[in-house]
Amino acid sequence: LFKANEVLQFKYISVQKELFVNPKYSHLSSDSKLLYGFILERFHLSIQNNWKDENDNIYLIFTRRDIQKLFHLSDKTVTKAFKELSDCNLIYENKEEISLILFILVK
To answer: What residues contact 99, with CB distance under 8 A and at least 6 apart?
Structure first.
């Protein structure tokens, strides 16, 4: 159990309730929903760092390998999660072939 002042010392990832209650997202896996919450957290850092493309879209840079390590997931699982998010138009990926960096635009 936590004391009231102890809860504030932890960081939390917020996942939009919409991903759980809207039938449009009912097919998303738990991995996809959690990943989207983490992407949104990183997205806020991109805003603070003023990471914008030529069209003034905020983006973040995240390698699949980093995501695999962070979530302890296989490449196949991470690829599936990104495909699910992309198919729902929640993210747009632009892959740089040289370094396999993902430029993710959150919609």
So the answer is: 63
E strands along 4-66, which residues?
59-63
- Count of residues in the chain: 107
pLDDT in tens, 25-84: 999 999 999 999 988 888 888 889 898 878 887 888 778 888 899 999 999 999 999 999
Closest to 67 (Cα-Cα) out of 41, 28, 48, 87: 41
Give the full edge-to-edge strand order of the sheet including 91-96.
Answer: 59-63, 101-106, 91-96
pTM over 0.85: no
- Rg of the chain taking only CA atoms, in angstroms: 15
